[in-house]
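Escalated from tier 1: manganese (II) ion holo job.
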Amino acid sequence: MPAIHFNDGRAVNVANIFCIGRNYAAHAAELGNTVEAEPMVFLKPTSALLEVGNAIELPSFSQDVHHECEIVLVIGKGGRNITQADALSHVAGYAIGLDLTARDLQTVAKQKGHPWTLSKGFDGSACISKFIDAAQLPTPDEAKFSLDVNGQRRQTGDCRLMIHSYAKLISYVSSRFTLQEGDLIYTGTPEGVAAIKSGDKLTLRLDGLIEASFNVA
Ligand code: MN
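Tier 2 regenerated the structure:
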């Protein structure tokens, strides 16, 4: 079972990887998507995890892999039907990651009404930094984050612009799936998604608390 790590070295085995789509209005608009009233949830297999320190390997079956920089939370205490008031107490930590997306495959899947699994769940598509304790980010709904590619700013995230708050996401996901310790939730990307290519260096930052770089092989 793949593990993620806190910045003090503690390891947590990852159970499920939930991802939220269209949680920033400007990103939904840039892909021509409408915003839903309820969070849009999809899954990645745990084989998709790629922890910082490893290179991104572009899949042979896509010519258009996009970066989606996102804040990721890890569940500490599981539960179901978690209330929004209790939700943040279930979070053990936060990280910054990439929901890598084979946009060409996803576009075909959308046209055909097929699932996104092939475009979102390939090996290495869930890039992840080390985690910080939740206590180090007491107001996650005000967090800011960014992605630089080869030193140029590509994405800037401001959690105050999230359509669904962290509490809403945790409450909603737990109303459909029993959350377990070690579950990850990728919380959505702001605008600015674009293709990556071999040789690129991607640097992700969360509020001065985390910096993580990934090289594209
Ligand atoms: Mn995403």
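The helical segments are 25-30, 84-87, 103-112, 117-120, 166-176.
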